[in-house]
Design goal:
With 212 residues, the protein is an alpha/beta fold. It contains six helices and eleven strands.
Length: 212
């Protein structure tokens, strides 16, 4: 079948176009560069800055002895008599360093609950927790005040880094629940007014213990 000159001309142009790469019209548009910039300071500093921006309360401790002392002072300052902790290893560590302030109280009746965490995300100031922890799913959510004990070697820069670390830790079998808690619970659903502590803790403390 004979191809008309007009059709042959169109096909020729198509072949030429396909053989040559077309430059991207907007090379600096979204998708060509990372939205988030790389870290420019130590992860401890980055996390502390982002966490406190979100109304979190940050305390750095050089060791477990200082952790125990700081926790004892915080409880005394706030008049907390009923501290709740479900993690035996953490309780034993604190007891070894002269803190034995936990009482046999139900979670719903406690003044504050103390947990550890899986990781900390420096860029967003987030605490990463999972259902695989001894504290379970509920402790960090139901208590009015959440106190988290974390370590400097648990810091990662971004959420992606955290998910990769969790996959490696659990060998691909991720826990049934992974929570990224970013500051105290808050909502602005009612008349656009920000209210803190509606769906979770009203206050969040993060004790970061040096462990390099």
């Amino acid at each position: 079948m004979k191809v008309s000159p007009a059709k042959e001309n169109i096909l020729k142009k198509i072949r030429q176009a396909l053989s040559q790469s077309t430059p991207i019209p907007f090379p600096h548009s979204e998708g060509n560069h990372s939205v988030f910039q790389p870290a420019t300071q130590d992860p401890e500093i980055e996390f502390a800055e982002q966490f406190t921006k979100l109304q979190g309360k940050f305390i750095f401790c050089v060791d477990h002895r200082e952790l125990a002392a700081q926790l004892k002072g915080l409880a005394a300052h706030n008049g907390w008599k009923k501290l709740y902790c479900r993690e035996e290893k953490l309780k034993e560590t604190l007891k070894t360093n002269s803190f034995d302030g936990f009482s046999k109280v139900e979670l719903k009746d406690c003044d504050a609950a103390v947990t550890t965490c899986e990781l900390l995300v420096a860029r967003t100031g987030s605490i990463v927790m999972s259902a695989a922890q001894d504290s379970g799913r509920t402790v960090s959510v139901y208590a009015r005040v959440h106190i988290c004990v974390a370590y400097t070697d648990q810091l990662v820069y971004d959420i992606r880094d955290g998910l990769i670390a969790l996959k490696e830790k659990y060998q691909g079998q991720l826990p049934s629940l992974i929570t990224f808690a970013t500051g105290p619970s808050r909502t602005a659903d009612i008349e656009k007014t920000l209210v803190v502590g509606v769906h979770g803790p009203k206050e969040v403390y993060l004790f970061l213990v040096d462990r390099h």
